[in-house]
Amino acid sequence: MFQDRLQAMLVPAVRAAFLDLFNQAPEAGAIGFQPTRPEFEGDATINVFPFLRLSGQGPEQTARAVGGHLVAHVPEVERINVVKGFLNIVISDAYWLTFLGETTGQDILQFPPTGKQVMVEFASPNTNKPLHLGHLRNIFLGWSVGRILGAAGNEVVKVQVVNDRGIHICKSMVAWRMFGNGETPQGSGLKGDKLVGKYYVEFDKVYKAEVAGLMAAGSTQADAEKKAPILLDAQDMLRRWEAHTPELRALWAMMNGWVYDGFNATYARAGVSFDRNYYESDTYLLGKEDVLKGVEKGVFFRKEDGSVWVDNTPEGLDEKVLMRADGTSLYMTQDIGTAIKRFEEFPGLARMIYTVGNEQDYHFKVLFIILKKLGFSWADELYHLSYGMVDLPGGKMKSREGTVVDADDLMDEVVAEARSAGEQLSKLDEFGEEEKSVLFEMIGMAALKYFLLKVDPKKRMLFDPKASIDLQGHTGPFIQYTYARIQSLLRKAGKLSTPTGQLAIDHYRLLPEEKVVIKLLHQFPAVLNESATKLDPSALANHTYDLVKAYNTFYQTVPVLKEEQEDRRAFRLALSMSVASTAKKAMWCLGMEVPERM
RNA sequence: GAUCCCGUAGCUCAGCUGGAUAGAGCACCUGCCUUCUAAGCAGGCGGUCGAAGGUUCGAAUCCUUCCGGGAUCGCCA
To answer: Nucleic chain B: which protein residues 376-395 of A have CB below 7 A from it?
Structure first.
């Protein structure tokens, strides 16, 4: 494990310095190093202001004294300088070179196994319409968090809940029966999820027309919205579905089958998969018993009408219904049951993460409190990975207004953009058509994924279609490009390269451009750790960009293969190799691939 | 009304467990391909960190109030 190596070395040294000099030392946790700002000389900086009470001296004196002690006792500390209360520490080149030497050829972004099993739920679509941009943010996020947790040493179980039953499906079913004329994906060539979505839209059109008609005939709006015949049909269908009417179940299974084919195509293209699917049709009756047990335990209470409630006012929330008066269940009831079921199925689960939009913050807050009240020990290990909505330049996405960005269309678009940009550069002459398609797919998808993942998940984000297909600057393709560039170097290096072990570590003077890159590599494990802890891929995404950005500066300033001195050339190749392999692993964590050439 | 999230450059975002002159990308302007991939590099332009108070040696970062945007508070999922 390489994270925070420097910190691990310096913190005890600073404490030792304080003890020797002033007979008392700050708590280890209170000592925080930060990277030295570029305008000063140094690699690590500590601010001694908080410790002046311990030293009883002024900031400059304290910093100098501690710094002097470090220089004398820590071989890796080469020299120091003091600016006001800031103690800037210069770490020896030997330290950085040793770090690089020890880690070359190793995966610094793979931590040892923790022995923990973590479940990540994401995607969780409804089966009445195709996936859209919002799903993509969810899917990329959940997938990436799973990968990151895996890199951090956990065993990850990826799951989705498929909302395959309910009034929404019945709406599509009703409309398909009325207007479908037996249309199938095979017959029409339409992707299954698109076909079912089409009838969902069809339903809504008819419904609106009927509501308008009823209102024209004198109904109130509220009344009309409840009495529209097509809606009554759908409600009736739901009841008969719940009664297991065979003919309806068959229709339902057929249409859902179409949707799954469509979803699977989208998932495959997005590069994601699941270890376990939970179908709501299997789980929607779960949780009732648990709620009733809660009543017995006195954790929940019944109102006069027989409905069951939980009182969360002690937690600063409201009362919440868990079961209707007629004994039927609700969304919350199901979620209670599903969580319990999962922990039964996976007894070793240490954590469960729900990747769900922030409009459900309240729901999950309540869910977790309820499970805790029911006495489940694992209730504290539940986490709602809440992310913000994706806005379009024109405002919010609204499916009814046709302003949704379809996931498949979007992926087509970014890949087409990658193709047109790539062909303009005309450096892919030796690529076959097949190879080109693979490459453009890889590049386009990286542009899209990086665009969605570089932003802090909890923030609402603006999706600018033009910016998302950008291939320059702070983008996925920029990272891919740097990787391909290094691969080209390494191919050309061929047998020229000499093992880094031959580098005379004690005599090599690092160039500033080299040192910046090594330091970013050195920090990388700590960044992975941060991303894993915060369940936030954006930290990793941004650091990967910083790394390759610094590498590009190095690349364009310092000769690698052209370097005459063999040991320098070998060192620079080793550095390049480490950047490439680390960037590749980081991209893997983000769900993106990197090409050997582009 | 209550609760939660957000407000940093023209635009999109970093930075937020308090630290030095607030950073990138895009856009716009200048340079750099007869040396390793120019999807690149170097430089310029651009900021009262929503506002006001407070805590502190020190605040974009912590606290309070206010303003602005959004979400939630359904016996919908």
So the answer is: 388-389
Here the tokens at position A560 are 């690698």
Mean predicted confidence (pLDDT) in A266-279? 97
Two tokens at A88? Answer: 């800037």
Residue A210 has pLDDT above 50, yes or no: yes
Mean pLDDT value of segment A507-532: 93
* DSSP E strand stretches across A331-378: 349-357
Which neighbouring-strand residues pair with A278? A161
Q: What is the pLDDT of residues A565-581, one digit of tens each?
A: 888 888 999 999 999 99
Which letter does DSSP use for residue A201 in this model?
Answer: H
- Protein CB footprint (7 Å) on chain B nucleotides: 3-7, 11-15, 17, 19-21, 24-27, 35-42, 57-58, 69-77
Average pLDDT over every residue of A206-232: 91
Angle formed at CA A443 by CA A192 and CA A452, multiple of 5 degrees: 70
**Of A318, A269, A596, A238, residue with least CA distance to A435:** A596
Dihedral angle sign, alpha carbons of residues A3, A1, A446, A358: negative
Q: Which residues contact A245 (CB under 8 A, 6 or more apart)?
A: none
A244-252 long-range Cβ contacts below 8 angstroms, 24+ apart: A248/A173, A251/A173, A251/A176, A251/A177, A252/A165, A252/A169, A252/A173
Interface predicted TM-score of the whole assembly (ipTM), two decimals: 0.96
